[in-house]
Amino acid sequence: MHGLKCLKIIILSLSLFMGIVLAETPLCHAQETFTGQYSTVVLILAPAEKMPKLRVYLEGQLRLQAREGQSAFERSLLWAGLGYAVTPKTTLFAAHGWTPNYNPEFINEQRSFQQVLHIEKVKGGLFFLRGRLEERFIPDASAPLVWARGMVQYQRDFTKKHKMFWILRNEVIFNVNTISKANQQGLGQILAYAGIGRHLTKHLSAEIGYMALYLNSRNDSLEHILMLNVLYLP
After folding, report:
1. What is the model's pLDDT at position 6?
2. CATH number at residue 15
3. pTM score over 0.85
């Protein structure tokens, strides 16, 4: 009970924090410039019975964009990493990824991240709390751009047979350092997502949803994103 009380305090604090950030964000002045599609496959596997606490993290993502009536590949992300289950509910991960950008020009970028993921059952649903430190190795940049990311997600089944579920997620990304005029220290992005999904098997699920992505820059922009996700969790 003490752990659940602490979790509720953490969730309330994060919700208030994100609410303040959203209230201070000039979304009414944001320029709407982008419509995109994401396709994601995430695999978090227990590799062997002799190592039940070890996890293998694999993720593939393809991003499409539509600007001025033209569609094109924007970016692909291929992640691979390892995790360790500190407790049945909390797992630590470290991963490295190849994340090239294709449009408007090819940029051969790589990234790494270190994260903690906590999953808690609350009021008939699942709360996901994730903290991530991510490094972007952008070619010709003076130093890696470091992101601090905080995410809160709630997922709940809504059919009697527990086949369908809805999901709400909010994430804030801060630039820890400044590496260029386009990448300044401070608030970088806010990602708000709502979706609906189906449990295909005990471990496999698929979902579709809408994400509003706010980019904080000199030319504030709001991107509208259609997301298609497939996930496997042991």
Report:
1. 52
2. 2.40.160
3. no
